[in-house]
Write a structure and sequence with these properties.
- The protein is mostly helical.
- The chain has a single domain, classed as Arc Repressor Mutant, subunit A (Orthogonal Bundle), CATH 1.10.10.
- The chain is built from 4 helices and 2 strands, in the order ααββαα.
- It has helices at 11-22, 28-37, 54-64, 73-77; strands spanning 44-46, 49-51.
- Helix 1 (11-22) packs across helix 3 (54-64).
Length: 82
Amino acid sequence: MSITSTRFLRRKQAADYIGRIWGIPVSPRTLAKLAVVGGGPMFRKAGRFPMYEPADLDSWVERRLGPKQASTSEHAKAGVAR
């Protein structure tokens, strides 16, 4: 997708997008904190405003999702630290 055809979302719109498309609640304040400490979705700045691309939000959510599992004990069997 070229940058000229990309629609950028402000932080509140980005949080709403994640909730609407993925069903995962995230607040604009959480996105703001992650923009400072790291670990959040990629963004650009337009002046002082952070702007998010929907594709970057989708990638971020997909990286945060764990694998499918049939029970909670599968997580423990895999030796994944809590």
